[in-house]
Amino acid sequence: MARDDEVVAEVVAPHTQAHGRILPSLIEEALSRAAVGWNDVGGLAVSIGPGSFTGLRIGLSLAKGIAYAAGLPIAAVSTLEALAWAADPAPGDVVWAVLDARMREVYAASFERTATSLVRRTVDEALRPDALAPRITAGALVIGDGAETYTVLGASGARLLPFAAHHPRGGIVARLGAAILHAGNGADVGTLEPTYVRPSQAEITHKRS
Asked: How many CB atoms lie within 10 A of CB 148?
C-alpha cells in the first residue's frame, strides 16, 4: 500500500502456486498493517506483465473484481518497470529488467534513472538471452531472475543483481500506481488485459497443428 509517494504497508509471500487462494488474505493483511479499511482506499494498482500467464490472469481478475465491486479506479503498472525500480538505481544508471520467460527466452526492457524518474529506453520484449546480451553495456544494472538463470547477460561487464535481494515488490507497484492515478491515467476496468508480449505455448502449439 502507498500513500502519495510513500509505501505504508507491504506483504511479501514466498513463491506459491496457490495465488488465487492466498491473495485475498494478503490484501487483508496489508490493510491491517496500514491500519486502514476499504473505505480509506482510493484506488488500486495491479502489475500487468509480462510474466507468468496464469499468475497475471489471477492477479488481474482479482483486482478488476475488487475495482468493480468497490467502484475504485485502477492503475496498470508494467511488471518490468516495477522490477527496474527494485534495483534502486542512482541518477545516470541504466537498468535492464529481465525475467525468465522459460523456453530459453527472457522478458526484458531497459530503463534509465534520471534525477526525478525512471525513463523507459526500450519496449517490453521476449527474446533469447544470447540476442539480448550484446545490447547490455558495461556498467548497466541487470535485475530479475533472468539475470541469474542466464549469466551471459553479464558478459559485457554489467552488474547482475541477486534476485533474492532485488525482486518485484508490491509496495513499488502501489507507489507507481498511485502516481498514475494522481496523473489521471487510470485504466478502463472493462478492457484492461495483461501484457503477455508473446503468445502462450498453447497458442503456439495450436498454430503449428
From this structure: 16
Q: Compute the distance between CA of residue 178 and CA of residue 183 in angstroms, rounded to an integer.
A: 9
Classify 103 as helix, strand or coil. coil
Measured over the CA atoms of residue 61, residue 62, residue 63 and residue 64, the dihedral's sign is: positive
For 83-133, how does the pLDDT look when each residue is reduced to its tens digit (9 = 90+)?
999 999 999 999 999 999 999 999 999 999 999 999 999 999 999 999 999
pLDDT band at 79 (very low <50, low <70, confident <90, very high): very high
Contacts of 130-137 spanning 24+ positions with Cβ under 8 A: 132/96, 132/98, 132/106, 132/108, 135/110, 136/96, 137/94
- pLDDT value, residue 144: 97
Helices (H), the chain: 19-34, 53-70, 79-85, 129-132, 145-149, 170-182, 201-208
Domains and CATH numbers, the chain: 2-79+168-208 (3.30.420.40), 87-160 (3.30.420.40)
